Known about the structure:
CATH class: Mainly Alpha
Shape: globular
Mean pLDDT: 89
CATH superfamily: Costar domain
Strand content: 5-15%
Strand order of the largest sheet: 1-2-4-3
Number of domains: 1
Order of helices and strands: HEEHHHEEH
Largest sheet: 4 strands, antiparallel
Structural class: alpha+beta
Low-confidence stretches: none
Amino acid sequence: MNVEEEVERLKEEIKRLGKVQPDGSYKVTFGVMFHDDRCANIFEALVGTLRAAKKRKLLTYDGELLLQGVHDNVEIVLKPSPPATEAAASVA
């Protein structure tokens, strides 16, 4: 699986585990993701995939490196997806 595919899977898992916010974003804590069996089976390097998604500005969280235990309560926020019409227009 390449990085782009992993980031897409990460977005799906955040939506599955997280809670939708009024602005359309999704919020989940690192601990919930880290301890989820499905995430553990999908992502060999969850922290690396999170960093790749953060670098692409698809999500935000405090800090650079998340560590199990120490950062279990850090909130990961998946930014809302742009409407399909805007996304199509920006590609053209």
